[in-house]
């Protein structure tokens, strides 16, 4: 297995990636998959903004526009933001707690392939020309009325991807509960690990409702169900409840890991321990908890009655308190520190004002009567882009720059990184700040075009120009990645020089077993403690050099997901074609056989011998690394 | 160089001011220029919450800027190791309690207005004669048009809501096909029209629409409802009570007598259109297409097109091209140019105001 | 881990289901999975409650007329008993008594199979009466809730059958002890869900 470094053919490498259960490789796969969909969603966004560039524009047709907004939202949330964050969680979290892998490497791989095939399934709708068109929320009356297979792609694709997410969530939870290194108590866990933990717990409780909701939608559209058909006694409001019981926690699932990444960055590049660490942990948990109590604030205008609206309004505002605690703790972390203006730090510093703006507009919408005006207007578009782009996407870009050297052993160019930041940051505010006013001025969201003479022209033009700037930023990032990969200047264990947590104490990229010896954690920011005490290896081992147990790779996850993929097409076409039903059954049988194979075949993993590890340690020493 | 910089500063200041002044939008559809009690209440909440939030932003930005200026590594030197402060309970307490207070300041009026705006008990009130005390309008949202029925007055219209000023008007909202949402930005916040239940709320219209740019307030559908969601506009005409009464009377009267602008057009209408469209404003809602009794008085064709003969003919010829997904068939191949001309003239002559 | 390592009841650990790290992971992970399943069923229950007795105009079915309590009562007895027998099985697993464990698990499986048979009968009876899946919102919600439970029972049956046959020759070890244990957890979970279905759907349907 230490043959990883050997040169092999393309086929063998491909096989290796398809069968890998190494959390680091799966993390990179998540990043690649998520990055791909991020670009797809970004192109959709650009077309949307081009269409809205001027009044009465007809660059795209009304139907195509609805396809674009639906796919933009769905892609960005489910196929870009979450998978990219999962990539970081997968790669970094086990390193941060001193583990050699995640708890369920097999399921980890399965989760990735389900995300990937789910995303593929969803996007195949473009090729068939029947695309989801009822918005990423797919409210039931419209999603039932929508013709063609568009919504079917949505329901089945998200079902597959959502299953993968649920698995990943459970996996991260168990990893953090069971696999922390000696001395890594809960209150010594780096904040990124904490946010991963809470976000995973939220996934566990938020995704089952989505699963159920999507099944209802699938049944209604493809199998004669009547959950949402009011002429048959159904009720569309049930969908709205179910969707938002999932959907609201979902935004916290996105933002919490982003908070985690920024917490790491503030601490590293201020050379200071995170201010008020216990309060930060508590605030994270509280946000996670409150996140489940506020879903109906997306439904203030549905007509739930004043009492429900009032309760959910106040609950919503309550979330501002722990979020505020976080903001001030970050401010006090940089206060009195030594701020180094690196690219990741720029993103983190850009994040604070951006996210505060997004946060406060959230509280404004929490005021139910005011929300009657703001709901479904461009104000809400501005608000959620401020939190998701200003929070999550900035965190993703920051994370890419921060962890790139750890993952690939070479630094992204700082100059290009800063150029990316400037374009993206300026473009972001240019695009979305003005949209608050568009909302005030009466522009509803999800409009394909708008008439002249409503006072919206200039604002929309500004917004579209901003989008262009953001696109330039992303293009510079891609150039940066290509150039860096070509140059390939190798870096050591702690390329930023100020790493504080365990991932910065091991080689970049780490060996497949991560730690030659499981480390002993001596406190919060354990590597910083070791550094201050002059320990050049930056680690105190908790065990002698000994054999390491590692899991075997497997192709079964890939096959299992492929079965789901096939079954999905079968379900979709079973009503109008004769091959649909057999295909569905075949797909399900395929999954079952794969599962049985996995179940019946013993997979006990293998051992990396003491000698191999000792050889790696000696090589590293000779190589002049720490 | 410095002078140029100063000029640039002045210019940017001016630019910001212009944006700020223009920042209120247009009277007929801006939530920032509310023309009704509900909208004004919501505007008050907007001001209050914006004030609190601006305060929060200012505090954050102040700390942030000072920290950025004082604690740069380029200033402190590369070897500087800051003190590893663990935290401060006092500070944590401060920034927990102050936000709670701020939230409470916002929460109390929020709850108050939630109940105030949600109070529709008066809808059922009747006077001594058993007539409803308040005007109630039944709104039905259909694929890309709006039907307004006045059950107590026995009249129905479409696309252009006509209401009296300076009194509470109550609404029963419902969707006939998929979910829509009823929104008149300048008057007050929206409420969804659901397919399975009736939603009720009220609005007040304080200002007559006469003086506005187009003589009407703009209404919007705010919930994605299909391809032509963005074109599902309606207009609101607000009249003083006595003018409203006169309008209602005229509408009622369209049942018996109507001035016909073009007799041939009427024949075409009765041959091709009457299956879906009524020209009598008296009666109940529920028709296939918008009621056309007051068509000539309207401000827009199909809710958003210029109100002239040219556009009307274009619309009748090919409604699908103009408003994709609506339920009106195309008449391009069925009507001759002459028939179209007659029809258009007839339709534009349907009026209750002249 | 060595699969061939032989234990005696004395050397067999007190908690064989979480004696190794892998086992501990599975143990914790499965509990969490059941947490997610709880939410899944909660959503189904909520939907059922909202759509109970709802149908198109002129809808002729109601919970009072539809459900047959005696049949459901027998089903409940079967499933509760099977939960008990799986407890016996786990008792023997902890005492390293492989044969008795297998026996009790087989009894559990047979009871589960009987339950499933009765459920199939119940469903086909409803369908014959015209209460089909697509008949109304009520029927969709009913079949989805109870059917999802039935599907879980079926999965459990396949799972335990595979376990029994796969390990018949090689006996207990620390690798498959966790598998047996998680199965029994799963079976208890199914049982608890059924108790809720019995109460919320059937009892409250007929009496409430």
UniProtKB/TrEMBL annotation, chain A:
The chain crosses the membrane at residues 28-48, 68-92, 104-128, 153-179, 191-217, 237-262, 274-296, 308-332, 344-364, 384-404, 416-438, 458-482, 555-573, 579-597. It is found in: Membrane. The keyword Repressor does not apply. Signal peptide: none annotated. Gene3D superfamilies: 1.10.287.70, Cytochrome c oxidase-like, subunit I domain (1.20.210.10). It comes from the Bacteria. InterPro entries: Cyt_c_oxase-like_su1_dom, Cyt_c_oxase-like_su1_sf, Cyt_C_Oxase_1, Cyt_c_Oxase_su1_BS. Residues 9-522 form the Cytochrome oxidase subunit I profile domain. The keyword Iron applies. CDD domains: Ubiquinol_Oxidase_I. Keywords: Electron transport, Heme, Iron, Membrane, Metal-binding, Respiratory chain, Transmembrane, Transmembrane helix, Transport. Pfam families: COX1. It is a multi-pass membrane protein. Belongs to the heme-copper respiratory oxidase family. This is Cytochrome c oxidase subunit I. It comes from Sporosarcina aquimarina.
TrEMBL record, chain B:
It is an enzyme of class 7 (translocase). Its EC number is 7.1.1.9. It catalyses: 4 Fe(II)-[cytochrome c] + O2 + 8 H(+)(in) = 4 Fe(III)-[cytochrome c] + 2 H2O + 4 H(+)(out). Keywords: Copper, Electron transport, Heme, Iron, Membrane, Metal-binding, Respiratory chain, Translocase, Transmembrane, Transmembrane helix, Transport. SUPFAM superfamilies: Cupredoxins, Cytochrome c, Cytochrome c oxidase subunit II-like, transmembrane region. Subunits I and II form the functional core of the enzyme complex. Electrons originating in cytochrome c are transferred via heme a and Cu(A) to the binuclear center formed by heme a3 and Cu(B). PANTHER family: CYTOCHROME C OXIDASE SUBUNIT 2 (PTHR22888:SF10), CYTOCHROME C OXIDASE, SUBUNIT II (PTHR22888). NCBIfam families: CoxB. Belongs to the cytochrome c oxidase subunit 2 family. This is Cytochrome c oxidase subunit 2. It comes from Sporosarcina aquimarina. The lineage of its organism: Bacteria, Bacillati, Bacillota, Bacilli, Bacillales.
UniProtKB/TrEMBL annotation, chain C:
It holds the Pfam family COX3. The chain crosses the membrane at residues 28-51, 71-91, 103-121, 141-165, 185-207. The lineage of its organism: Bacteria, Bacillati, Bacillota, Bacilli, Bacillales. The keyword Membrane applies. Residues 1-206 form the Heme-copper oxidase subunit III family profile domain. It is a multi-pass membrane protein. This is Cytochrome c oxidase subunit 3. It comes from Sporosarcina aquimarina. The keyword Membrane applies. It is found in: Cell membrane; Membrane. Belongs to the cytochrome c oxidase subunit 3 family. Keywords: Membrane, Transmembrane, Transmembrane helix.
């Amino acid at each position: 297995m230490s043959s990883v470094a050997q040169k092999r053919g393309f086929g063998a490498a491909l096989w290796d990636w398809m069968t890998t259960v190494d959390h680091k490789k799966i993390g990179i796969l998540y990043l690649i998959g998520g990055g791909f969909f991020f670009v797809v969603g970004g192109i959709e966004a650009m077309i949307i903004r081009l269409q809205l560039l001027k009044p009465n524009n007809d660059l795209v047709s009304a139907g195509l526009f609805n396809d674009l907004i639906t796919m933009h939202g769905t892609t960005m949330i489910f196929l870009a933001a979450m998978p990219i964050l999962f990539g970081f969680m997968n790669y970094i979290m086990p390193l941060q707690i001193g583990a050699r892998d995640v708890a369920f490497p097999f399921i980890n791989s399965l989760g990735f392939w389900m995300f990937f095939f789910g995303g593929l399934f969803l996007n195949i709708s473009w090729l068939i020309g029947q695309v989801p068109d009822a918005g990423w929320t797919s409210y039931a009356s419209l999603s039932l009325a929508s013709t063609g297979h568009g919504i079917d792609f949505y329901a089945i694709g998200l079902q597959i991807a959502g299953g993968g997410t649920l698995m990943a969530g459970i996996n991260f939870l168990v990893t953090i509960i069971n696999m922390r290194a000696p001395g890594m108590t809960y209150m010594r866990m780096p904040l990124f690990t904490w946010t991963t933990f809470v976000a995973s717990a939220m996934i566990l409780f938020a995704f089952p409702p989505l699963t159920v909701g999507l099944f209802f939608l699938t049944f209604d559209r493809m199998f004669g169900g009547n959950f949402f058909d009011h002429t048959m006694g159904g009720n569309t409001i049930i969908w709205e409840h179910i969707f938002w019981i999932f959907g609201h926690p979902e935004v916290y699932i996105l933002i919490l890991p982003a908070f985690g990444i920024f917490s790491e960055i503030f601490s590293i590049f201020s050379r200071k321990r995170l201010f008020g660490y216990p309060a930060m942990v508590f605030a994270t948990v509280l946000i996670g908890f409150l996140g489940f109590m506020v879903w109906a604030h997306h439904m203030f205008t549905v007509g739930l009655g004043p009492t429900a609206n009032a309760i959910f309004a106040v609950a919503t505002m309550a979330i501002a308190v722990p979020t505020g605690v976080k903001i001030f703790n970050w401010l006090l972390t940089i206060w009195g520190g030594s701020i180094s203006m690196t690219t990741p730090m720029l993103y983190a510093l850009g994040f604070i004002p951006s996210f505060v703006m997004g946060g406060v507009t959230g509280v404004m919408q929490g005021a139910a009567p005011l929300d009657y005006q703001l709901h479904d207007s461009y104000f809400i578009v501005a608000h959620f882009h401020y939190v998701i782009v200003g929070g999550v996407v900035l965190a993703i870009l920051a994370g890419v720059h921060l962890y790139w050297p750890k993952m690939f052993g070479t630094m992204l160019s700082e100059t290009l990184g800063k150029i990316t930041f400037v374009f993206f940051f300026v473009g972001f505010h240019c695009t979305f700040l003005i949209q608050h006013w568009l909302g005030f001025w009466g522009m509803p969201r999800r409009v394909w075009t708008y008439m002249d003479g409503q006072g919206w022209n200039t604002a929309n033009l500004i917004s579209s120009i901003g989008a262009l700037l953001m696109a330039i930023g992303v293009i510079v990032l891609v150039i940066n990645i290509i150039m860096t990969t070509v140059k390939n200047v190798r870096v050591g264990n702690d390329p930023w020089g100020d790493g504080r947590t365990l991932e910065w104490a091991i080689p970049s990229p780490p060996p497949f077993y991560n730690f030659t010896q499981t480390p002993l954690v001596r406190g919060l920011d354990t590597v910083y403690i070791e550094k201050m005490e002059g320990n050049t290896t930056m680690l105190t081992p908790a065990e002698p050099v000994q054999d390491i147990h590692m899991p075997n790779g497997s192709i079964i996850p890939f096959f299992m997901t492929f079965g789901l993929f096939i079954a999905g097409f079968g379900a979709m076409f079973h009503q109008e074609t004769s091959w649909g039903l057999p295909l569905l059954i075949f797909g399900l049988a395929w999954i079952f056989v794969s599962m049985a194979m996995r179940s019946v075949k013993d997979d006990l993993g293998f051992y990396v011998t003491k000698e191999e590890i000792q050889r790696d340690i000696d090589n590293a020493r000779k190589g002049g690394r720490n | 160089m410095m002078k140029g910089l100063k000029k640039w500063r002045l210019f940017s200041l001016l630019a910001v001011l212009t944006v700020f002044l223009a920042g209120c939008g247009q009277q007929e559809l801006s939530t920032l220029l509310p023309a009704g009690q509900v909208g004004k209440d919501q505007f008050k909440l907007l001001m209050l919450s914006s004030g609190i939030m601006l305060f929060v932003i200012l505090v954050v930005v102040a700390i942030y800027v000072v920290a950025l200026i004082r604690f740069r590594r380029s200033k402190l030197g590369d070897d500087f190791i800051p003190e590893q402060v663990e935290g401060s309970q006092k500070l944590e307490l401060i920034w927990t309690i102050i936000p709670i207070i701020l939230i409470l300041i916002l929460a109390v009026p929020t709850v108050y207005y939630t109940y105030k705006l949600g109070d529709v008990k008066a809808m059922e009130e009747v006077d001594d004669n058993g007539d409803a005390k308040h005007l109630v309008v039944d709104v039905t949202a259909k694929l890309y048009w709006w039907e307004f029925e006045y059950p107590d007055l026995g009249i129905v219209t479409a696309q252009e809501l006509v209401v009296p000023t300076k009194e509470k008007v109550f609404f029963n909202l419902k969707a006939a096909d998929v979910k829509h949402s009823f929104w008149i930005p300048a008057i007050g916040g929206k409420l969804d029209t659901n397919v399975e239940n009736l939603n009720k709320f009220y609005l007040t219209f304080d200002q007559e629409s006469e003086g506005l740019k187009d003589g009407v307030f703009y209404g919007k559908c705010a919930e994605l409802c299909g391809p032509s969601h963005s074109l599902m506009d309606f207009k609101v005409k607000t009249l003083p009570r006595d003018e409203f009464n006169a309008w209602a009377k005229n509408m009622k009267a369209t049942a018996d007598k109507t001035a016909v602008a073009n007799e041939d057009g009427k024949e075409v209408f009765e041959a091709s259109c009457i299956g879906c469209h009524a020209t009598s404003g008296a009666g109940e809602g529920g028709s296939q297409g918008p009621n056309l009794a007051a068509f000539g008085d309207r401000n827009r064709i199909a809710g958003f097109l210029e109100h002239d003969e040219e556009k009307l003919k274009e619309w009748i010829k090919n409604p699908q091209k103009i408003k994709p997904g609506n339920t009106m068939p195309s008449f391009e191949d069925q009507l001759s140019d002459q028939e179209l001309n007659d029809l258009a003239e007839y339709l534009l002559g349907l009026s209750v105001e002249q | 881990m060595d699969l061939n390592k032989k234990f005696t009841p004395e050397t067999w650990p007190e908690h064989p289901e979480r004696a190794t790290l892998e086992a501990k992971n599975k143990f914790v992970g499965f509990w969490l999975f059941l947490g997610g399943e709880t939410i899944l069923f909660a959503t189904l229950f909520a939907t059922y409650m909202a759509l109970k007795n709802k149908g198109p105009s002129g809808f002729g079915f109601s919970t009072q007329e539809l459900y047959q309590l005696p049949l459901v009562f027998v089903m409940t007895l079967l499933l509760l008993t099977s939960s008990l027998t799986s407890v016996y099985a786990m008792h023997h697993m902890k005492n390293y008594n492989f044969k008795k464990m297998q026996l009790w698990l087989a009894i559990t499986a047979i009871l589960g199979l009987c339950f499933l048979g009765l459920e199939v009968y119940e469903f086909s009876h409803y369908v014959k009466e015209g209460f089909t899946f697509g008949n109304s919102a009520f029927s969709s919600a009913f079949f989805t809730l109870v059917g999802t439970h039935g599907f879980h029972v079926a999965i459990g049956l396949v799972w335990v059958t595979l376990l029994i046959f796969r390990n018949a020759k090689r006996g207990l070890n620390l690798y498959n002890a966790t598998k047996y244990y998680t199965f029994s957890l799963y079976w208890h979970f199914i049982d608890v869900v059924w108790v809720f279905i019995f109460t919320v759907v059937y009892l409250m349907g007929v009496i409430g």
